[in-house]
Amino acid sequence: MHCPSVAVLAVLAAGASAATHKVEMGEGGLTFKPDSLKAAKGDTVEFHFDSLHSVVAGDFKKPCEPAANGGFYSGDLPDGKKTTFTITINNTDPIFYYCGVEAHCQGGMVGVINQADDTVADYKSAAEKTDKTTNPKSVFGGSVGDGSSSSSSTTTKGSSSATTTEASAASDTESSTNTASAAATSSTGNVAGHLTGPVAGVSFLALVFGGLLAY
């Protein structure tokens, strides 16, 4: 009876455990802050644009150029109220990225997710030696937003759902206990009812027999 509740709790817990990592762009110069972070599969990375920049997934061996396979591109932001670009991490392979605005990549505006043997420092050093920046033709690989989303609201919602589910499960248990108690009471009453007839009969015969002896 409680197996479905356990399964729901497991799914909710998995959802609640996914983290959102925030990266500030252009805060105090040509920078991503932090420029290196660790993210698990299922996590999201939310890039916040403080001034005109873009974020493009690249390859370590070809700095300031889009990744040959997969990747993402935000386009130049901010655009009106659109100030964030969010991607979902599908695996824990290293992801190097750069700002696609002209000369920003060469100026050191690069970063990495899940750094391994190849470091962001080496990527930055190689980027400084390039003479051009290349961008994809259109935005892809993520969602553009207004910056109103947050990891805390997602986590709180998940925790609330889990609490509600646990309360429901507890209610089911209480209901089952009450039902069992009622059934036990009813059963006891029935047994008492069945015994009343024979006991009454025996008492009547005893009175009659006693009367005859007295007579």
From TrEMBL:
Please name the Gene3D superfamilies in this protein's record. Cupredoxins - blue copper proteins
* Record flagged with keyword Signal: yes
Alphabetical list of PANTHER family matching this protein: EXTRACELLULAR SERINE-RICH PROTEIN, SERINE-RICH PROTEIN, PUTATIVE-RELATED-RELATED
Q: Which keywords belong to this entry? A: Signal
The organism's place on the tree of life at top rank: Eukaryota
Q: Where is the signal peptide?
A: 1-18
Indicate what this protein is called per its UniProt record. Answer: Extracellular serine-rich
Specify the taxonomic lineage.
Eukaryota, Fungi, Dikarya, Ascomycota, Pezizomycotina
Span list, region Disordered? 127-188
SUPFAM superfamilies the record matches: Cupredoxins
Question: Where is this chain compositionally biased, Low complexity type?
Answer: 146-188
* Annotated InterPro entries: Cupredoxin, Ser-rich/MCO-related
